[in-house]
Specification:
Radius of gyration: 16 Å
Organism: Arenibacter echinorum
Structural class: mainly alpha
Number of helices: 6
Strand content: under 5%
Keywords: Membrane, Transmembrane, Transmembrane helix
Protein name: Putative oxidoreductase
Distance between the termini: 33 Å
Helix content: over 70%
Largest sheet: none
Length: 136
């Protein structure tokens, strides 16, 4: 079964994280609050709420893509871009640590980005770089 390949466990973990990070906010007003109380306040008004919903819906779509192993590279690229934007807009000013020596830092986004890169390139970067050089 293709979906149970070598990346399945990592994909499954990322799916759980993406769903846990998106679905509750759809029902507890968290997404609207993020749009109104954060994004609009830092200069995205009046688009804060639509942007917030786009982010969370992208998490939901990415989770489906990862679990069913469809459009993996696109799902990973979009999610990585969202995570980088999160680092720039939210987490960088808080430092590295999520908990412990700090709070709300970049370390969680950092590991998620590299987990998604690992899913995108399950055979490592060497093979992908070699293929790229051969075709260009």
């Amino acid at each position: 079964m293709k979906t149970l390949n070598s990346t399945f466990l990592l994909r499954f973990a990322i799916v759980i994280i993406l769903l846990a990070h998106s679905i509750p906010g759809m029902f507890n007003n968290g997404i609207n609050d993020f749009g109104n109380l954060f994004l609009n306040q830092i200069g995205f008004a009046p688009l804060g709420v639509p942007i917030a919903w786009s982010i969370k819906l992208s998490h939901l779509v990415a989770a489906l893509c990862l679990i069913f192993e469809k459009f993996i590279k696109w799902a990973c690229i979009v999610t990585i871009l969202v995570l980088i934007a999160g680092i720039v807009l939210v987490h960088f000013k808080e430092g590295w640590f999520v908990v412990g020596a700090g709070r709300n830092g970049i370390e969680f986004n950092f590991i998620l980005i590299f987990a998604l890169l690992t899913i995108m390139f399950p055979n490592g970067l060497h093979k992908n770089i070699s293929n790229f050089k051969r075709h260009h």
